[in-house]
Every structure is written in C-alpha cells, then in structure tokens.
User: Fold this.
Amino acid sequence: MPLHLPQRGHTVTALHVCRHCDGLITDPDDAVFLWHEAALSGPGWDVYAHREHADLVEPDPTPIRILARVLIARALSDG
Assistant:
C-alpha cells in the first residue's frame, strides 16, 4: 500500500529491508515476500528479501527450539 505524504502530496511506495543482508530493497520487483512474523502486541510484520537472497534466509530457530522442548517434556511425562 503506498504511503501518502500530505504535506507535499507525493506518493511513496513501501520500502522493505532484506532479512539476509539488512540492505534496503528499493526495487519493488526485487522484493520477495518470505513470511509474516507475529508480534506480541500489534499486527506483526512481513519479512522480505532480495530475490537473489531469498534462498539464503533461514527462519528464526527460537520457535523450533521451544516446540522441541515442549514435545520432549510431553514425551517424558507420558511414560
């Protein structure tokens, strides 16, 4: 969704930051949507990367570690 600057009447397209290199993605055709990250408060944010970096980005390992701990705890308590 474009951002409107009412004081000047200009329209600016949304800019994204690459998750891999932290560089600004200035070309909208170069931005690849990867996933949406939920937030504890608010709507969260979308994660983007440059087209050439999209295959290099890995998801945050924290939720995977938490899920592994929960599954291990359940398996140990069932016995």
Observations:
- Residues 3-78 form one domain.
